[in-house]
Design brief:
heterodimer, A: alpha/beta, Rossmann fold, five-stranded parallel sheet, 5 helices, 5 strands, globular, B: alpha/beta, 3 domains, seven-stranded parallel sheet, 13 helices, 8 strands, 50% helix, 13% strand
Chain lengths: 137, 319
């Protein structure tokens, strides 16, 4: 068998800054993961559709526009709707601590802020995959 | 019937996605799933798209999807990108260009990493096409890695192969002659609004004119500006002509026969190699490596002797 952790990296919304997303994508690749990079200006619907078709384990979103309180819960809800609630939803951006806490309550995984070391993200996803992935039918 | 297969046949995308992962990961259940799916295939035409990096393959594929959807076809896409030989990871970015068709319910796109395969496709891309076919795709598009010359897998996996180049590929026509010239059923000079497009077309046509095309399909050379959707309709029409020609001349069944034969051989070779290593084990191989390194025999002799021994054992009457 030849399993790899598959991660969708996407940028929802209107801001055009994808450098962070690209750096993370490259770091995950270098850690041996398969990264589906969907690019800029993604709607939550597009993100979830891609996540389903690509059968990813993890959905990682970069949100710098301040829309995180809308985007993350919406993606979470759509994933549930498509029977893909077992996937990890994580991400990063400029997100205040109290919002991180609120999103956590809504089933969103860890969210990483500016200055995060990419190895922390890699380790977080690996650890999650060790304990969760491939359990679904 | 496997419940997962049932869900695929009912058109459930998440079930298809799971099946594809099982195939791609070579999970033990994959063969049984493929067996069942195989019975539900409709032999949908498979169209390969290959060419050097940056030639616009994904954009052309997106344009073709749009036209095929207008014609009412459901479309399955396999887009392959390279796995890093160092980390084993990959960034699969073909979806970036396909965003405009990503939400179309009649389109299913799957990105695949090569996972060590060198021929421009992943080693299980063909099986993924079979799953897409059983799912109900009427047309299947296969986009290769795009390394330029080692894209021969696609010609075997697809019924029609489109080779995409750009005007700047000019100097590489010499190189194209070696690999890509032989596998193209249709040539596309993309980004044809740039300087040098006509020259590129001329170069390709004169290279093609050196060959005798009597009773054979002569690949047309077409110009596109895929980013603006220009010329894609003509590419689709050429694909339709090629499909009709193949059907008329019996080339289609010939090509598929060859392709299935090659695939069986390839899979048998893999299975035999796996079985040999599982049975004889690594030490057996290492012993032969030692012999070669000590200068006792050449690798060719070692391989020949090993194969002969294996066949002897296989043919020996069982006690």
């Amino acid at each position: 068998m030849d399993r790899r952790i598959r991660v969708l990296v996407g940028k929802p919304g209107l801001d055009g800054h994808d450098r962070g997303a690209k750096v993370v994508a490259a770091a995950l690749r270098d850690a041996g993961m398969e990264v589906i990079y969907t690019g800029l200006h993604q709607t939550p619907e597009m993100i979830v559709e891609a996540a389903v078709q690509e059968d990813v384990d993890v959905v990682a979103l970069s949100v710098l526009s301040g829309a995180h309180l809308t985007v993350f819960p919406r993606v979470r809800a759509l994933l549930e709707e498509r029977g893909a609630g077992h996937k990890l939803l994580t991400g990063g951006g400029i997100i205040p601590d109290e919002d991180i806490e609120m999103l956590k309550q809504k089933g969103v995984g860890r969210l990483f802020g500016p200055g995060t070391n990419t190895s922390d993200i890699v380790e977080y996803i690996r650890e999650w995959a060790r304990t969760h992935a491939h359990s679904e039918g | 019937m496997d419940p997962l297969v049932e869900r695929v046949l009912q058109g459930e995308k998440s079930a298809l996605a799971r099946v594809i992962s099982r195939i791609e990961n070579r999970e033990p259940q994959a063969v049984a799933l493929l067996d069942e799916l195989f019975l539900h295939q409709k032999a949908a035409p498979r169209i390969g798209v290959t060419g050097p990096p940056g030639a616009g393959k994904s954009t052309l594929v997106t344009g073709l999807i749009r036209i095929l959807r207008e014609q009412g076809h459901r479309v399955g896409v396999v887009a392959v990108d390279p796995t890093s030989p160092f980390s084993g990871g990959a960034v699969l970015g073909d979806r970036v260009r396909m965003n405009e068709v990503a939400l179309d319910p009649g389109v299913f796109i799957r990105s695949m990493a090569t996972r060590g395969s060198l021929g421009g496709l992943a080693s299980t891309s063909r099986e993924v096409c079979e799953a897409l076919d059983a799912f109900g795709s009427d047309r299947i598009l296969l986009e290769t890695v795009g390394v330029g010359q080692s894209e021969l897998d696609v010609a075997q996996a697809a019924d029609s192969t489109v080779v995409v180049v750009v005007p700047e590929s000019g100097d590489s026509v010499q190189a194209l002659k070696a690999g890509l010239m032989e596998i193209a059923d249709i040539f596309v000079v993309n980004k044809a609004d740039r300087e040098g497009a006509d020259r590129m077309v001329h170069d390709l046509e004169s290279a093609l004119s050196l060959k005798n095309w009597k009773d054979r399909w002569k690949p047309p050379v077409l110009k596109t500006v895929a980013s603006r959707g220009e010329g894609i309709r003509e590419v689709n029409e050429a694909l339709e002509r090629h499909a009709a020609w193949q059907l008329e001349t019996g080339q289609l069944s010939h090509r598929r026969r060859e392709s299935v034969g090659a695939r069986i051989l390839e899979l048998t070779r893999e299975a035999v190699t796996r079985a040999v290593l599982a049975k004889a084990g690594r030490p057996e191989l290492e012993a032969r490596v030692d012999a070669v390194l000590k200068g006792v025999e050449s690798p060719y002799r070692a391989a020949e002797r090993w194969a002969a021994e294996l066949l002897d054992t296989a043919n020996a009457p069982s006690p």
